[in-house]
Task: structure prediction
Amino acid sequence: MDQGVIDYIANVFDIPKLTQHVSAVQMPLPLSRIAEIPLDAGVNQCQGFCYNSKKDVFVLACINSENTKQIIYEINPTTFKVVAKYEYSHKKLLGHMNTLTYNPNNNRYYTTNAVVDGYIVTPIEADSMIVEAPIRLKEKVFNFAFDKDRNEYVSIVPLTNSHRTINYYDSNFNKIKTYKIDAEHTDLNNNGAYAGNGNTIFTTLTTFVFVDEEGVVKNISPYTSGMEVEDMDYRNGQMYMAVNRKGKVEIYGLPSLPFSVNA
Result:
């Protein structure tokens, strides 16, 4: 999420600081650079990233600064070479593509616009890559993930510089619960989303934040500065993430996490 999205977030509420036990890891997580993804002309950053288990490909969503052009790349998960790409010019439907998640039950990707309309989630049929009619939520939505273990969707919305709201939706996008959590961060920037077995992971500009199924922040782990982890997903028990770093889009791996999460 970049400054344009941060500027879009309105109606920010102050909420009391929550008292929670957080197990902070002092040493940065050992992210390992795997590959740089060459971008086509017209796009200059990544925002969404996920794993398609049906095709066995990573899927990377890249955009331009004006949110008027989007390119989705399919990437071989072992060679990290681009094997397919799909180009769009859907500012109203796709916009910033602020996170990308895959639902294997209906074979669709979901992304959030986050710039033109902060209330919509847009599905993309994963075989045809046709962009479908957006789904309008009652609440704002920025970072979005599908929990295949629970058949639920998870949305993470910045409230204040420190606090976030985590909303949970059933398979029909009906909200079933919500938590307010303290990410212990200093600004509204909020990136990525992974959900598994009720647990949720997202990143700030400097940390990974792990929240359990009861909305308790269990762990905040720093990662090396100078990069922006935009989105993440698991494949074969390892987490992979898309990163904007020094004008390049790179893929990083993380063999293990300092907490337990279903993968």
